[in-house]
C-alpha cells in the first residue's frame, strides 16, 4: 500500500487527492498547501492530515510518494527534494517554463536515480490507450499523418495567462506530448502560426496568442497537425486522428449522455461536450494515478518520464520561435 | 428499346414518365390521362405524345409496355387490358383495395400469362438492396427479428383518406411488403393496434387510424414489428433493422446534405430528413423502372409479382381485423 | 449517515455493497449471505462485518436500511421483515414471480407504512433520466410511440432459467417498467408473441421463449413496442426511442471507448457494446443507491415503489398469457 | 438554350458532355478530341457530332459555349481562342502549371472581356454549398480555423505524375480553392511540408511528394490547415471543418448506401467511401454545369473566375517553395 502526500490543494490537487484516497493501491496520508484553509477543507473531506509545508510533507517517514500539484515554479525544487529523499513523484506538467531549468532538473533526477513520473494525463484516457494499442497491433500499418484538435471552452483569467508561459507551453504542451506518443517518432521540424481571434486586447496585453496551428515532421517524414483555440462555444473539444497505410483511427469527444434529439429543424442532435478537462479526463486522471502507483509498487519504469516533459517543452519553444519568426524550426 | 406508355399524369405518373424518358433501355411514347391538361403538360416537357384515354394508349402498336399510375380502382381493369394484349405492365400498388378482386386479378393475370410487375419501389432503394445482399451472403446468420419504422411527414388531405382503404392498406402496405422481403418467410400471424393521435376528429370521420403498430410471426418463429404514423415533425422517417444470429443490419434515413452543426446548445446536429417519398426514394423509382425494363427485355421473371401485391394486401386486411377485434389473426 | 446492510453476496449484492460502501450518504455495516464465504470475501474487501443470517442483519440496531439482493423467493419475507422493523428497504426486482403474492406483499407494506424502494435500475441511468427530463420539459410534445430494444449478449444457464419465471417475468420486466415510465400512462392492453430461435431444445425443456415481441396500448392510445432476445453477438443491446408530436428522443448504447476504425472493408467502425448489465448500468446502480439513500434521509417518497414492481409483473403475466393464447389481453 | 461543345473526350470530358446533354438549359452540339475514336464513342452515346479539332469546334456558328477538358497545356490557348470568338468557357483546372502563363492568360481574358468560368467543382457540392450558406447566415460567427482533409484512394500512374506539376499544383489546388472560399479572406502566408510515405522510389523518381501538410494564415489571422495524401485504403476522403466564434460546421464523406453493420467484433460499421472524385462529386459536376449555363444565360458574373484559378495556383507555388526551403512564404 503506497502512502501518499499530495502537494497543492487547488483544482488539480483536489483531483489527485481524491484519486489517491479512492485507490485500492494507495492510502492518502496528507495534503499540504500554504493556503491552510484549502488543505484543511480537502483533508477533512478525504480523511487525512492537513499540512502547510509541502517540504515537510515530503520529509514524513510515513510518506512513500508525493503528487506535485503546486504552482509551476515550485515543480522543480519539490521534485528534486522528493527525489533526493527517495520518494516517488507524480509531477504535474510542465516541469518548468524554462527549458534550461527543465534540462537541469532532468539531469539531476537522473543523477539521483529519482523515480519521477510526469502527469500527462491524456495518455491514460481509455480511448487514447485503445488507439495506442490498435497502432501497436499494426491495425493501421505505417503511420503517415496525425491530426489533433484541442480547443478549450473559454480562456483562463488574465492573472493565469500572465504566468502561463504562453499558449504553446501551457495548453498545446499536452498536444505536443500526444503528438510524440501517437507519432511513435520524435518530431525534427516545427512550423507554427499564432493569432489573436478570441480576445485581441487581452492577448496583446499578455503578449500571447489565443488561436494557433502547428505542423511537425519526423525524420522519416511522418507529419502532425495540431490546432488549438482558447474558446469553443460547444465545449471542450478533444479529437485525435491517426492515419496510416492500412487504415485510420478517430477518437471523438465525450458527452454527458448518449441521447439524440430529433426536431423539426434538426435531427440526430447530441448534447454539448463535457465542459472541461476535469470532467473530460476524470477517468484518465484515475487511471494515471493507478499507473503511477502500480509502477512504484512494481519497481517498473515510469510510464511517462521527466524527459517526456522536457521534450514537450522543447517542441513548445520551437513552435513559439516559429510563430514569431515565420521559419521552420529544427528541434 | 422498350416503347413505353405511362397511364396517369399525377404525382406518381410524373415520376415514372420522367424515369422512362431518361432510361437508356426505354423510349417514352405517350402519357395518357383523362385530365388532358396534366397529360399535355407532362408530355410536352418530356417530348412524347399526350393522350386522354389510357385504354387507347395500351392498344397502340408502338407501345410494348405500360406503367399504371392511375387511381387505385382502375388498376385491375387496366392491368388486365394490357396483359390481355400482351403488353408488359408495371403497376402501382395496391392491386386493389378488395382482396377478392385482387385474388381474381392475380388469377386472371396468370391465366393470360401476363407480364406484370408490382411497383413496390422500396425494394429497389440502394440501401435496401445492400441489406438484402448482406442477408443473402449470410452476414447476419439466421434472421430473428425485423423492426420497421415508417412515418410520414404529415397526413394526406381528407379527400385522399376517404378513398385510401385505410392506413394499413394505403401506407403500411409498403412495410408489409418490406417485412415479407426482409424476413425471407411468410408471416402466419398478425397482431395490430391502431390509435388516433395525430388528428382524432378527422380519423374518426373517415373511420381510420393515424398511428399503428403491427407485430407478426412466421411459421419458424421469426418476428417482425412495424410502427407507422401519419405525421413526424422531423420528416419522412424510414428505418429498417434486421437482427440475426450473427449480427444486425441497420438502414438509416437520407438527408439532403452531410453537414453537421455544432452549437452552444447541441452538437453533431444533422439536417431534417428528406421530406417525403418522392425525394427519399427518387433513386429507388429510377432503379425500379430499370429493373422492370431489364426483366421485360430479357424475358426474365418479374422482380415483384402481382402475388406479392396480393400478399401484402392480405397482411393489411389481417392487421385491420386484429386492430378492430383485439385478436391475433392467422394469415 | 445511513447505516446499511446488504442481504445477498452474489453478483448483484456485490454491486450494491460496493455502492453503499463508496456512498458519501451511507456506511456499509454488514453483508449477510448464508454462503458464508461469499459474505466473508465481500465484507473483507469492503471493510464491514460478514453475517450468515439476513434476518439477523435486518434486526441489528446499527442498521437503518437494507438492500435485498437474495434469491427471488426470499424477497417478500425479507422485505416484510424489514418493513415490520421500520427499516428502509431497497429490494431487487421482481417482488415475486407470483402476482397474488406480490399483491399481498404490496398491501402488507402499505399496512405497515413500510419504506420500500424497488430496484428498477434503468430509471437511474444518466441518459434515461435525460430522456425523462426532456419529455417532462415538453421537448417532444405529446407521446405517440415508444420503441424499446433489449437484447442480452447470451442466455443464462439452464439452472437459472428453470427458476427465472420465464423471459417476460425475468428479462422483459425491466422493459415493462421502462415502458410505463416513458409512456407516462398505464398500458391497458398487451399483445405478445414468443419464439425459440436461440436454443430451441433448451427453451422447450424449460418451457420458455428466448425471443419475444410485445406491443401495448394505453387508454389514450399511446403505443409501445418491446423486442427482447436472449442472445446478441454484438453485446448487450439497450436502445430506447420515444416519438412524440414535436420530436423524437433516441438513447443509444454505451461502448468502452469512443474510437472509430476506418479500414479497407468498412469505415466508422465502433467497438462492440459493453458486454452486460453490470458494466452498462454501473452508473445507474450507483445513482440508484444514492437516490434511495437520499429519499430515506429526506423522508421523501420512494422514487420507485413496490406498486411499480407489481405493475411490471402484471404486464409480464399479460404478455405470457397473450403469447400463449394469441389474444390481446386487457390489463 | 445554350449550345455547347465539349473539348476533350477523356475521363473528365465524358462527365461534362453527359451533364451538358442532360441539362435542361443546354444542348450538346459536338464533342471534339484528336483521338477520334474517343470522340466518336462519346458523341454516339450522347447523340451529338464528333470532331477531331477542338479549335474547329470553337469556331462553329452553332456553338455558344465550350467546356475545356483537354490536357493542361492546351487550356490557355483554347480558352483564349474561345474568349476571342466571344464564346463562353467552362475550363478545367488548372489554368496552367506556370504562374506567369496563368497571369498572362488571366490578363488576356480580361482584355478580351471573355466569359470564362474555372471548374472548381467542389464549390458546387450540395453539402459544400450548405456550409457556405450557413457561414453567410452567420451561424458560426467569425471564422477562426478551417481544417481540410483530402486524400485520394491511390496514386495516379507514373506517366500522369510526370506531367502533373506536382502534388500541390495537381491535387492540393482544389483544397487551396476551398480554403480561400471557406476562409472568406485571402491567405497571406503559407507553410508547407512534404513527405514520401506512399511510394518513396516513385516519388523520388518524379521529384514529388505523396503526403503533404499545409498551414496558412490570412491578414486578419484566420488559419487553415490542409492535409493531403495520394493513398487511403478506405477510399476518397474529403472532409471539411469550419470553426468559428459561434459554432462549427463539419462536412463528412459520402458512401454508396446508408447501411450499418453490427458484428461480434465491431458495431455501427459503415461502408467504405465512394471510391473517387467522379463518384463523390457527381452531383457537384452536374450543378457546376448548371451554374455555368445559368450564368451565361443570365449574363451574370461567373461563379468562379480565372483569377480564382490563378490564386489557387499561386498558393500551390508558395506551398512548394515552403516545403523545399522550410520557410513561411508570403503570398
UniProtKB/TrEMBL annotation, chains A, B, C, D:
What GO molecular function annotation could you give as one example from this UniProt entry?
A: inositol 2-dehydrogenase (NAD+) activity
Query: Residue limits of the GFO/IDH/MocA-like oxidoreductase domain?
Result: 129-249
A Pfam short name: GFO_IDH_MocA_C3
Decide whether keyword Ribonucleoprotein is in the record: no
Q: What is its EC number?
A: 1.1.1.18, 1.1.1.369
Occurrences of domain Gfo/Idh/MocA-like oxidoreductase N-terminal (ranges): 2-119
Write down the superkingdom of origin: Bacteria
Give UniProt keywords alphabetically. Answer: Oxidoreductase
Q: Does the keyword Metal-binding apply?
A: no
The similarity annotation says:
Belongs to the Gfo/Idh/MocA family.
| Protein name as annotated | Myo-inositol 2-dehydrogenase/D-chiro-inositol 1-dehydrogenase
**What is the native source organism of this protein?**
Labrys wisconsinensis
